[in-house]
Recover the amino acids of this structure.
């Protein structure tokens, strides 16, 4: 289907996505149609979509210009796209009259049956059938996750779309809708012209449609309507109380908010559009989670057999990854083979690829932040089953009663497979990856997720709910969990504590988020890239400092200028040993605790004057934030699903296909990337 992107504009500030104006040839209307499309920054294959239908005289441009600033920002927060169809077909050969309420700009979202309109005025089919199909083909927006909202004539369209075909829409709302058009002048005029009679318009009258029901619509727990009580069209044209009366008879819930002092204008829409987008976002997410939990995979053809699949292979340090076809063996006893659905790129992968990791072995398959589906299990595996969703964890948890590490609340460092994992092999000392020449490839961190299928130890599998999108769950495989856990587990930051965070990548920002959630009263963010300060403040930083902008060492600036004695807790998230020292030395005399999170390059050592420790400071380190992986990752995932632990802000780049991993690496090097997620 041919189309042209007329414009593409970044909207909504640094957190916003892009607004497109798109022209395409419509088979429904027989004309070229223009529509607007807002895509959130991290849109993908199953991004939920809200259709906005505008009112009389409007085009797709009215909403985007007059209410788009608030609407697009709200849509970004909710992670939904917004589609803005035109209100009618247009063009010199399209029938029109010299009237604002009929013809071009007034298509009434129906399928006309009368001349001269029936050839072009097929707006019902255009919006409900053709446009969703087009968006699915060209922009990967699925048709099963869509809601509808509109204003005035568009509110009429939204209500009739949803009531005529409730199974196709997740939710419906409206501003100042024409609720009973067969009983108002606008509807009388339109239905006679387009359909031949007012009676024929009953098929597009929300009050009539709901009045014919004897039971509520199971798809809609509520229908949200906002109406200004100073609207000049309220009594004669809109008639919302007639709709409410009809709904009461069948038990359908409608929330009608009468807004004091508001009229029919876009000022009214802009005032309450956030509420409507949140209304739809909540229901779209619930539907999305239900769909994901029902997805099943048929792995019967691959179980027990080697699988050939695409992988990005690290052949040597400081070299780009190479796309290759790799054979992945079936799992052995105590092992699990998984289909990798998404992988997030972590700086540790780059650290190893750059040759800085003392345990780095080549050739290997990197990757350790992933969301996966279990394809098959080896002998003796009982904690996960085929079809389960899992997050591979580089810090395993054997859970044996004989493991003093797993049984101790003081640590998460289970050593059960530490030696083999460090040697790039499976627990039995062998490998599961082979290239096209039959040569073995090393495993990485017990995960190796830059491949479409991988094999991991059962004790490295954190089983999670299927409701969580795997392209988000993957973040809990390393960086985000590590930052949060450093605050909550390793240091146990208390309410009203003061905190300093060095390095504002994903881990550092997770530390800030965790400290804010823990109740820290002052959070100082430190980085030499000031562009990161905006995100740091959004997540809870109270002050931001660039060490290049001050004349003294950063530790003296914090413990001396910004504070009298230093901060209660400091965190190094850089891997730079000089920064580690600065973090320690800015912690509070007598009780300050400094936590090392960043991984230093091979051979580097930390140093400070012993006096720093003698005077009460504590130097600590953390791995995976002290979380016991199989026990705690499912809890973190559920907290995120429940809205208690938002993580979407960490995903700044999304790529499709394992072969795009080098592009993700480039993005990570740009300095503007927190987490680049590659969906397979």
């Amino acid at each position: 289907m041919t189309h042209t992107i007329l414009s593409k504009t970044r909207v909504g500030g640094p957190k916003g996505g892009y607004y497109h104006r798109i022209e395409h040839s419509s088979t429904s209307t027989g004309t070229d149609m223009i529509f607007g499309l807002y895509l959130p920054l991290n849109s993908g294959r199953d991004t939920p979509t809200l259709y906005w239908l505008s009112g009389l005289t409007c085009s797709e441009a009215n909403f985007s210009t007059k209410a788009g600033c608030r609407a697009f920002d709200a849509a970004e927060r909710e992670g939904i796209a917004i589609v803005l169809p035109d209100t009618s077909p247009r063009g010199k050969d399209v029938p029109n009259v010299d009237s604002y309420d009929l013809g071009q700009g007034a298509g009434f979202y129906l399928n006309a049956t009368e001349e001269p309109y029936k050839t072009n005025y097929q707006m019902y089919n255009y919006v409900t059938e053709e446009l969703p199909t087009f968006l699915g083909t060209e922009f990967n927006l699925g048709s099963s996750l869509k809601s509808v909202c509109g204003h005035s004539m568009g509110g009429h369209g939204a209500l009739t779309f949803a009531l005529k075909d409730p199974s196709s829409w997740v939710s419906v709302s409206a501003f100042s809708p024409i609720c009973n058009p067969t009983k108002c002048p606008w509807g009388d005029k339109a239905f006679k012209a387009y359909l031949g009679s007012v009676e024929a318009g009953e098929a597009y009258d929300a009050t009539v449609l709901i009045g014919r029901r004897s039971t509520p619509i199971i798809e809609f727990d509520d229908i949200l309507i906002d109406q200004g009580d100073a609207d000049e069209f309220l009594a004669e044209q809109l008639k919302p109380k007639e709709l409410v009366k009809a709904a009461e008879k069948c038990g359908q819930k409608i929330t009608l908010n009468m807004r004091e002092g508001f009229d029919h204008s876009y000022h009214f829409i802009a005032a309450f559009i956030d509420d409507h987008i949140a209304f739809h976002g909540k229901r779209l997410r619930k539907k999305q989670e239900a769909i994901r939990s029902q997805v099943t995979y048929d792995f019967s053809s691959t179980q027990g057999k080697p699988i050939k699949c695409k992988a990005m292979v690290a052949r040597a340090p400081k070299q780009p990854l190479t796309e290759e076809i790799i054979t992945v063996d079936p799992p052995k006893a105590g092992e699990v083979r998984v289909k990798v659905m998404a992988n997030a790129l972590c700086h540790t992968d780059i650290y190893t690829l750059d040759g800085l990791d003392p345990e780095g072995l080549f050739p290997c398959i990197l990757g350790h932040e992933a969301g996966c589906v279990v394809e098959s299990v080896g002998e003796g595996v009982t904690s996960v089953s085929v079809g389960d969703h899992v997050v591979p964890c580089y810090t395993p948890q054997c859970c044996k009663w004989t493991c003093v590490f797993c049984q101790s609340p003081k640590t998460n460092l289970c050593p059960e497979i530490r030696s083999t994992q460090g040697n790039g092999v499976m627990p039995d000392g062998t490998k599961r990856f082979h290239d096209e020449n039959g040569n073995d490839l090393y495993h990485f961190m017990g995960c190796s997720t830059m491949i479409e299928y991988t094999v991991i130890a059962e004790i490295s599998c954190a089983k999670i709910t299927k409701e969580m999108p795997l392209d988000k769950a993957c973040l809990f495989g390393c960086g985000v969990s590590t930052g949060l856990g450093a605050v909550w587990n390793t240091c146990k930051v208390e309410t009203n504590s003061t905190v300093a965070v060095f390095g504002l990548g994903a881990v550092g920002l997770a530390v800030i988020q965790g400290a804010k959630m823990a109740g820290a009263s002052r959070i100082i963010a430190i980085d030499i890239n000031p562009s990161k300060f905006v995100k740091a403040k959004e997540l809870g930083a109270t002050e931001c400092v660039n060490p290049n902008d001050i004349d003294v060492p950063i530790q003296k600036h914090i413990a001396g200028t910004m504070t009298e004695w230093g901060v209660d807790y400091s965190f190094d998230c850089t891997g730079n040993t000089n920064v580690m020292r600065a973090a320690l030395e800015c912690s509070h005399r007598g009780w300050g605790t400094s936590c090392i999170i960043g991984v230093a390059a091979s051979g580097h050592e930390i140093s400070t004057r012993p006096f720093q420790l003698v005077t009460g400071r504590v130097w600590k380190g953390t791995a995976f934030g002290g979380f016991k992986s199989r026990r705690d990752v499912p809890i973190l995932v559920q907290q995120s699903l429940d809205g208690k632990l938002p993580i979407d802000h960490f995903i700044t780049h999304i790529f499709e296909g394992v072969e795009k991993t080098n592009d993700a690496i480039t993005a990570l090097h740009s300095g503007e990337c927190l987490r680049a997620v590659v969906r397979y």
Observations:
- Residues 266-294 form the longest helix (29 residues).
- The longest strand covers residues 335-344.
